[in-house]
Amino acid sequence: MKMQLMDVSLNFQVYGKEDASAIVLLHGWGQNIAMMKPIGDRFAKDFKIVIFDLPGFGESSEPPRFWSCYDYALLIHEALKKLNIDDPIVVGHSFGGKLGLIYASKYKVKKLVCLASPFCREVDKVSFKSKCLKMMKKIPVINKLEGFAKRHMGSTDYRNASDVMRDILVRHVNLDITEDIKKIDCPTLLIWGTNDESVSIERAYQLEKLIKDAGLVVYEGCTHYAYLERLGQTINVLRVFFS
Fold first, then answer.
1. What strand order describes the sheet that includes 214-219?
2. What are φ and ψ of residue 60, in 5° steps?
3. What is the mean pLDDT of residues 3-18?
4. Which of 30, 79, 131, 226 could form a disulfide with 152 if both were Cys (CB 3.0 to 4.6 A apart)?
5. pTM of the model
6. Do 183 and 209 meet the contact criterion of CB atoms below 8 Å apart?
């Protein structure tokens, strides 16, 4: 499905239990709806599932001009209003997790889940995309997602990206949202891998301290895609947190 909003064509999926609480799933940079469906599909019997192709990715159009992370969060808010969804559970991975943090600092959220979510600049971000691609190749669940990892995460993708998307990426990487995070008051779950080379485990411990009501689940030996590397465990942890 698509809707026109804030000068973009926003592609999204809504499925699951119609009158239930909504889980909103936000993918990471260079990804699309497919990356979050392994979670959404497992909760569709008990929740309404909403997954967006964030603008500039998947089948959604690019923003017409530079958008900050705050603009992305506003778009999510406006889209959920159109879908008559209030007080959702928000689950975000990486870039989507950063958007989730901003969203929860500004709007009503029932619960928040952050999967390896950056909130300030890492020391070494030069090879962010190549690191992510390298890790994705090792994860069986991702390898089954029709190879879009190579199409969306490689260095060629960055070189071929529009000026707008490159500008958004650079500013996202450098944006520190620490002060926004301090405003979050909903129950928050953090899931992180100890071998995450994109957003270090140290950031997870810092984030846990910044949020008033937060808990951290650590996956030993897992990477930036820990939630998929141990998908079964992730689903079990989320079921407890959502209940």
1. 2-5, 8-16, 48-52, 22-26, 89-93, 111-115, 188-193, 214-219
2. -90, 145
3. 98
4. 30
5. 0.88
6. no
